[in-house]
Amino acid sequence: MKISKQIGKSVNRLEGHLKVTGAAKYAGEYDVPGLLQGYIVNSTITKGKILEIDESAAHALSGVVAIFSHNNRTKLPWFDIMYADMDAPPGTPFKPFYNDQILYNGQPIALVVAETFETARYAATLIKVTYDEEPFETELAAHLDDARDPKKGIATFIKPLPPSANGDFEKAYNDADVQYAGEFIHGTEHHNPLELFTTTTVYEGDGKLTVYDKTQGTSNCQIYIANVFGLHYKDVRILSPFVGGAFGSGLRPQYQLFLCVMASLELKRNVRVTMDRAQMFTFGHRPQTIQKTRFGATADGTVTAINHTAIAETSQHEDYTEVVVNWANMLYPAKNTLLDYKLVPLDVFSPMDMRAPGGSTGLHAIEATMDALSYILKVDPMELRLLNYAERDVSANKPFSSKELKQCYLQGAEKFGWANRKSEPRTTRRGNRLVGTGMSSGIWDVIALPAKAKASINKKGKLKVKSAVTDIGTGTLTVMTQIAADSLGIHIDDVTFEYGDSNMPLSPIQGGSYTTGVVGSAVKAACESLKKKIFKKAKKMNNSTFNSVALEDVVFEDGSMHLKQDKSNFVTFKEIIADNDGKKIKASKNNIPNVLKLKQYTRAAHSAAFVEVEVDEQLGIVNVTRAVTAVAAGKIINPKTARSQILGGMIWGISKALREETLMDHNLGKYMNTDLGEYHIPVHADIHELDVIFVDEKDDIINELGSKGVGEIGLASMAPAIANAIYHATGKRVNKFPIHFDQLL
Amino acid sequence: MHDKNSSNTANFSSNSNATKVQLHINKTTLHLHVMPWVSLLDAIRDHGKLTGTKKGCDHGQCGACTVICDGKRILSCLTLAVMKDGSEITTIEGIANGEVLHPLQTAFIEHDAFQCGYCTPGQICSAIAMLEEGKADTRDEVKEQMSGNLCRCGANTNIIDAIMEFKDKRNE
Ligand code: FES
Ligand code: FES
Question: Where do transmembrane segments lie in this chain (chain A) (predicted)?
């Protein structure tokens, strides 16, 4: 039977049945015997010292088993390095319960462990803490003068600092026929995956733990826990088969993991610690960022000068950075550039990557500036992008490994009906609503990292592939299964992909849109090496007809191996394994990217978003009525799940432009809207017609699969396109996100 | 570490306050002995060991905990277990007919109406009961009446597509 190729097919999510029946188990849902429940107590001051923790009332409560704090914590290592996870920025990682110092508002300071969840929660409210408060600073806008260069570290490899200046920006800007300068203000955002951060720790005795954790990296948490608590790596097993969303919040081990493991080790019991929704606002976040742009262009629309600066907040203990200002010159080949990125350390927790970190911030400034220039020049906004189309990345002086952004513009515009647009702002109405359309380019890096995978095939001809990677809702399970099926030439039903387990081959944390490319390439490589082994065994078979042939002369398909020249000369995998005494054939591959080759190219996914908005003239309410995003992201392994990723990104764009922001009272240093009623994200009624196009793009450079990843690119272009459409509708350019009705009245 | 000694000065979780509650969940009767402050959500998840119903906020703000109680969709996090003594409750685990999926569940899979899947049980229970209410006809009305169920992954359009397909087929 001919088996159809899986790559490029819209396969339904393989875990779909489990998810629609409630059978999928998330970290807080494992029924383990004798489970104790932990509830976290957080600091109510922003900076200072804990003087006393009065636990007496809590202890007096029946059912309370233990209360942990810095006063009675486990012995912990001294050195910062022991607390550094795979995603730690340069600096000193936060160490829960380390001492009496309060570094930020909401810092975990105690953990109540009780027989029931309700008891732990109630007891936590009875704990009285006295502090010695110190003055603190949390407002970025008030400290722009303190901005300084970020410290460099390992993170700088993946997140390069801005390239140095080119040409003479000031002169070019002054000489430019048209200019636009803008200031762009972005507030804090929190990831708020729908699942609360939870850990269930199973105490296995003898310093051994099995931990169900909400994370984007099982290996990352394993290493962290082993280092912090002085355990052997092999004795710590982190499982994370289902993750209820993360969006970057699970890139680093969160403090509930630390607390849960500490309690479990101290009490020698099984423990669960779950954050509540307010606590979901007490760790990483998208940082407040203030940007300035100055772009200059000639009268015919050639952008000649680009100045883009950003100042972002970080914590006092780590230099978290994002790539905010590097994108403009990758998109538009101006000869004179001045790019700058600085940090202001404040008394907050370290910011953390949140879906399209940096890119979604920077592109708003870049694409709104380009939009503003187009109106000054009286050139169609898309035309201006095409006029300044970069065939080569001048910022790095490198070719693109592939770039079909032009097709994104053209196909997106066609589908959207961009050609019919009236160019003047504020010229279209529907009843009492102003209608406008806007567009934006999008760009996102393709990152290459090493990853490992194992593949084995058994006597029933079933292929099993393993990686420690997680599936945070991205479709990783399905996509990896598709890749494995095609790599070996086997039916998809005969493939199992096992994942979400630190016992499996090492995988990088899941993020940055690189998982499909990175882990997918490892899966492919493991299957390739399995093929070699199968081939060798086949040659050794009695009466083998493959004796004198080379690996290049055979084809693996339909569950068998046959001669390229003669399909009738074949042997099935089952036959080969039967001949191997029924023993499995196994292969393992550590896939290491060819950095020297990759370095010669700029590698990026691109997109173009086209958006229509309606703005109620009396109420200022904005509705995104329809949008099209065209994406060039190399090979799309599964168009169905990839489309969902882009749709998700587009909805995040709507949310970023119009809804979400964590508001802080800077007198208290405390976030004020820490629940899902006050932290606004779009609801079903806010979401209208959304369309996705994948543009054909071939890339032989980036990885074995030619796949660029789609997790963030859908968000990158969406939010700026909304801001631009609002300008077209109303004639008002609002450069502060989220855009609220009061700014449009 | 302060270990607990035996002198209980409060009987917060002592069994003397526990109340007997019978919940008919997914056609099985569950006999519970719960404290009056235990939410229906925690009763279902922790005591009933049915973890398909999700906790996203515990505040009535996300819809992840939606179950169908005596034919109506309710937020189980805003409901105490003791309030529902004797009620018929359907959770996500009771939506399929044995191994045969409910057509809305099939539509969710076909339309890729979930990513992480954490909002999914709530979306499905909410949609089924919402259609029973009979107040939503158009796509806009369905969106409006499903707006208590958040999806952070942004599966919104696919969720509504799945519900509309099921609704239209049902009316045929
Ligand atoms: S958990 Fe009940 S509404 Fe969120
Ligand atoms: S699928 Fe993740 S929250 Fe809806």
Answer: none
